[in-house]
Design goal:
about 60 residues; mainly beta; Rubrerythrin, domain 2; three-stranded antiparallel β-sheet; about 5% helix; about 20% strand; elongated
């Protein structure tokens, strides 16, 4: 499950969004602060691993 670092181009809020395994990345990201629909993932940090995935190997118990 990749965790994306998202940047809102309206209010400059930076937040994270997770895309569950077997689903597609959203075409429109909505800012969690202002609700703007002009948020974009940082290209250089597009696919960060889940924070607990490295500790648990095949995924974390909270996401099963």
């Amino acid at each position: 499950m990749p965790v994306y670092v998202i940047h809102c181009q309206n209010c400059r809020h930076v937040f994270q969004g997770m895309v569950f395994a077997g689903s597609q990345e959203p075409k429109i990201w909505v800012c969690s602060k202002c609700g703007g629909r002009n948020a974009k993932p940082y290209p250089e940090q597009k696919s960060v691993s889940h924070p607990l995935e490295d500790q648990h190997g095949s995924g974390c118990p909270c996401c099963r």
